[in-house]
Amino acid sequence: MWVVHSPDVAVRHAFSPSPHNLLSKITACYRSIRKDISPRCSGSMDRLTLSHCGRKQATVRTCTVSGFPTELLEMRSEESSLHVLLIPGNPGIVLYYKDFVEAIYQLLEGQASVTGKDYQLGHFKQLGIFVMQQSILEYLSCSKVDEYDFFTRIGSMEGCFHWKNKLIIRKISFMLPVCFFSLIQYVYSTFQVDFIEQEYQNSEHPLILVGHSIGSYICLDIFKRLQQQVKYVIGLYPFLSLNKNSLKQSMIGLISRSSIVSTTISYFVSFLGSLPTWVQVAMVRKCLGQSWSSTAVDATCSHLLQYHMMRNMLFMAMTEFEKLSEEPDWMFVKKKHNQISLLFGIDDHWGPLSLFEEVSRMVPGLALSIEREGHMHSFCCTEAGSLWAGHHVATLIKNQIAK
């Protein structure tokens, strides 16, 4: 151990030109990175056995919804009496919730089939967000016929991929101020409703929706449209309105509204994603936290570190910020207050305690909880957070089953 009396001494020791010292530091750095990417367990061996070897594993399936490939994380039960559908937060990567989904299934002891559904746009690697934008514009064309016809008369879109992209960008730039709500409603809620009607149309079992962050908002909107089919809605760390006191939200809003900044960030993220996998894993662990589970690290490296994924995430954040500047639909929440439960965090700028107080005031009698265990908004990125949230959700569901 060093005894340092001045900064100069520390610098001389740290940057000694000795080949032996340099080799030692390189070896130590390599061992540190190898340690970061090796399998780890935060707890005893018994807990590791319970978490990974002693429980049924979720499976990944891809299905087509409204013409778009959609990734599902599923745990099916032959003895289930209800369905649990998880709607994740932005960027909609359902693989982050693998530990969470497995915890819910295990704690419910097979009484429910649990499905996590993504809404990421990253599957469209060739066209990226432009494919979804085109579908959105077609969906909105009934109310925007004049603007749509004006741009299509400029030139033919057939056989010219680049012109088609420019055309869509120009239409989006002209229409964004007036179609934010329809955009978020289509990409989020309508897409989810189409999936529910496709997958559960012949099912007699009730449906319970679990939403995280903006997923809570999506679940409430789905509930409005499928009130007969949805039995209960659980919102975790809900993002229901903007937090004007949050500097982080202000910064994200500025970034997402700037095409130049968003593009620059997306290219940088894409560069990181082009690095060797072991380097990506080491960087994610170093930058985002040693407590992250291997599931979350793998999902980040395989899905998030891509140009189109980052652009899509920022684009959707922009639409969220615009829509959530409005007041939530308190009238609907009051009407269905006995079928809704919300969980808030102590230090969560997306769903702050000020929102908890507002909900308490606006909807007396609504089932509200505050998580005081120290888990973050991104609870699904740690095994401890996934297990705690899974226990919370399973308890609420069991209470509903008992009624």
UniProtKB/TrEMBL annotation:
Output the Gene Ontology terms for molecular function.
Answer: lipase activity
* Any GO CC annotation of this UniProt entry: lipid droplet
Keywords assigned by UniProt, alphabetized: Hydrolase, Lipid droplet
The UniProt record lists the keyword Transcription: no
**Would you say which domain of life the source belongs to?**
Eukaryota
What InterPro entries does the database record attribute to this sequence? AB_hydrolase_fold, LDAH
Q: Where in the cell is it found?
A: Lipid droplet
Q: Does the keyword Protein biosynthesis apply?
A: no
Q: Which GO terms describe its biological process?
A: lipid storage
Q: Which family does it belong to?
A: Belongs to the AB hydrolase superfamily. LDAH family.
**Annotated protein name in UniProt:** Lipid droplet-associated hydrolase
